Amino acid sequence: MVDRIAARRVVDIITGAWQSQALYAAVALDIPDHIAAGHTTDEKLAAAAGASEDGITRLMRLLTAMQVFDGTGEDGYRPTAVSELLREEADQSMKDMVRIYGEEFHRAWGAVVPAIRSGTSGFTHAFGVSLHTYLRGEASAGLKFQRAMNAGNVFFPDVLDAFDFSKAGTVVDVAGGSGALLATVLRAHPEVHGVLFDQPHMVPIARRHLDAAVGPGRYEAVGGDVFQGVPGGADAYLLARVLQDWDDERCVQLLSHIRRAMPDGSRLLILERVIPRDGSAMLPLLWDLHLLMAAGGRERQLSGYQDVLRAAGLRLESVHPLALETSLLVAAPV
Ligand SMILES: C[S@@+](CC[C@H](N)C(=O)[O-])C[C@H]1O[C@@H](n2cnc3c(N)ncnc32)[C@H](O)[C@@H]1O
Q1: Residue nearest ligand 1's atom 8 by CA
Q2: Which of 18, 119, 163, 191 has an alpha carbon within 20 to 30 A of 71's alpha carbon?
């Protein structure tokens, strides 16, 4: 006799992937924007999206059951708080996040078996180049990736409560991307000067973002390579979602460069997910496997962060929980 509960569990897990691809289809067809523009019935949505009406009816029936939309195809669909986040113009729109997970990362997950067998990035198996090389070469993918990172930023403001920046003269955001975390700090602390450090191709993107967020004059944007060195002499260094992309050896290399740049009283603020020892938190576990599929990186247990910090001449001083099961780890020179 088949265990029906177990069989149902297997089916639920299999169909989970279909839900994310259905959400991706809605975004790729701009359905949330079309509904906001008044194309609310199946017929009008199909015309606006250039899609078959039958396809739209079936897609929208599922997405309505998933509570992404409300209403019906005859009387008209209505947006929900979820679909509002998927509009192009939404504040911190998650549209590009859904797109990159439905496109590049979906293809990378297709290589899950060779990735697990070899312990190396699914993305590299699927695309023939690493995620970082791909993002450097494809400007539109780089922008989509950065927007996806920004959409996942909801825990950045929590850092202001967890760490006192009022005595920091200069803050360097190492591999800071478009500078969203640095902008959060600079907006809250008008006396702080910021340095955004990232790869040279990211500098113009960061400048555009920081000019709009805090204005020129509050920061410098410096291009470089974290494995060669980082700007020195700052009171605080930010390192958000960077260690997750690298193996222990590379983490120790880049942390050693930061340690050499830090004056004795300086602090390093690391934002990452920490895998609990009992494996109870689902999000860090999901993200850990996703990082193997993407850049070939990993989430770590607290002891894993302590090991790479110690090897770089740093010690973990305190840990603070942030939103979305993310943590702030504050490290000091030994
Ligand atoms: C996952 S993103 C995190 C960006 C940002 N800290 C955030 O949390 O939004 C990783 C960043 O590392 C940067 N990066 C990768 N390799 C680098 C290198 N060798 N030197 C400097 N930055 C690098 C990328 O350009 C990207 O902005």
Answers
A1: 240
A2: 18
Residues of the chain with CATH 1.10.10.10: 4-84
**CA 32 to centroid of ligand 1, rounded, Å:** 30
Q: Give pLDDT tens digits for 64-75.
A: 999 999 999 999
The number of CA neighbours under 13 Å toward the Cβ of 15 is 8
Q: What is the pLDDT of residues 131-189, one digit of tens each?
A: 999 998 887 888 888 888 888 888 999 999 999 999 899 999 999 999 999 999 999 99
- The CATH 3.40.50.150 domain(s) of the chain lie at 153-274+296-333
**Ligand 1: centre distance to CA 96 (Å):** 18
Give yes or no for residue 58 CB within 6 A of ligand 1. no
CATH number for domain 153-274+296-333, candidates 3.40.50.150, 1.20.1340.10, 3.40.50.300, 3.90.1570.10: 3.40.50.150
Look at the pTM and tell me if it is higher than 0.85: yes
Query: Ligand 1 pocket, 240 CB below 6 A?
Result: yes
Q: Which class does domain 4-84 fall in? A: mainly alpha
